[in-house]
Each structure stands twice: as structure tokens, then as C-alpha cells.
Amino acid sequence: MSATTPFDLSPPAPPLFNQLAASLTQDERDVLLEHGTESPFCGVLLTEKRPGLYCCRLCGLPLFLGGTKFDSRTGWPSFTAPFNELHLAYVRDASYGMVRTEIRCARCGSHQGHVFDDGPPPTHQRYCINSVSLAFVAATDPLPDKLGRGMPEGVVWMPAAT
Ligand SMILES: [Zn+2]
């Protein structure tokens, strides 16, 4: 897939990264920075079904589209596809005696969850993501611009009509 993105993917400078990290709750820090996993069925985003974007909790980069979310019954928000391939980093994770593919935000490196190949058609991918790693932005609301990058951040993202 030859992907391009209008978003600026250069990482935040360390002082800004540290400032954003300091604004997180302890639960958010445990997952985003320490690669923890939240308990299933506790996430506030599980029942979210409105159109919109799911953005990185730390840096605000859009990671998933509302339309790709599905009920995996695992207790974690699950998606069939990324918002943009370039917005995710895929990292081999051999912890806990399993080989899995970890998902991180491609811009700030924060831990999001894992991707598995047992999802529904058409992609058969299941992006299993922690609620605390994401911030939901309704389609009618402006995107966050936590890094001060400017458009398309800070404005309403209008997905292409399908
Ligand atoms: Zn991020």
C-alpha cells in the first residue's frame, strides 16, 4: 500500500513530549509509556459508535476511523483497519511467551495495543487497542493539535465522501 498523509509525523521534541506525558493520568501513563494493558470491559470507548476519529491520547495523531470499529467481544476497542498505515508503527513483541505484533503511535511512539489476523472481512485484521491510549473526536469536532502543527490538526477533519 502506497500511503501518504497530510499529517506531520515528525516526533515531538523531548520537552514537549515530557510536558504531554506529565498531563496524562497514571492509568494512561501505565499503558502509553510502560506498555501496560488495561483491564477488559473497563474502557469508556467500548460503546462509542458515533462517526469520528480515534486519536493518540498523547500526541493527538488520528489512528483509527469510527467506521472501522467493531464489537470483538474481547472487552477492548477493536478496529479492522488503521486510519492511515503511516500513522502506526508495527513492532514485534515476544513478551509473555507469545509472538505478537505491537501497535504504537508512529509519531510519539506511545503503546496502543496489538494487531491480530483473526478479524472480520474485508481486512481480517483485528486492531485490539486500549481505551486509555485513544481520545475520541466526533466527526463534527476539530481535531486536537497538541503539538501545535496546524492544519489538518486543530480543524474539523472531513473524511472523503464514499
Ligand atoms: Zn502519538
UniProtKB/TrEMBL annotation:
<dbReference type="Pfam" id="PF01641">
    <property type="entry name" value="SelR"/>
</dbReference>
<dbReference type="InterPro" id="IPR011057">
    <property type="entry name" value="Mss4-like_sf"/>
</dbReference>
<comment type="similarity">
    <text>Belongs to the MsrB Met sulfoxide reductase family.</text>
</comment>
<protein>
    <recommendedName>
        <fullName>peptide-methionine (R)-S-oxide reductase</fullName>
        <ecNumber>1.8.4.12</ecNumber>
    </recommendedName>
</protein>
<dbReference type="InterPro" id="IPR028427">
    <property type="entry name" value="Met_Sox_Rdtase_MsrB"/>
</dbReference>
<feature type="domain" description="MsrB">
    <location>
        <begin position="17"/>
        <end position="139"/>
    </location>
</feature>
<dbReference type="GO" id="GO:0033743">
    <property type="term" value="F:peptide-methionine (R)-S-oxide reductase activity"/>
</dbReference>
<dbReference type="InterPro" id="IPR002579">
    <property type="entry name" value="Met_Sox_Rdtase_MsrB_dom"/>
</dbReference>
<keyword id="KW-0560">Oxidoreductase</keyword>
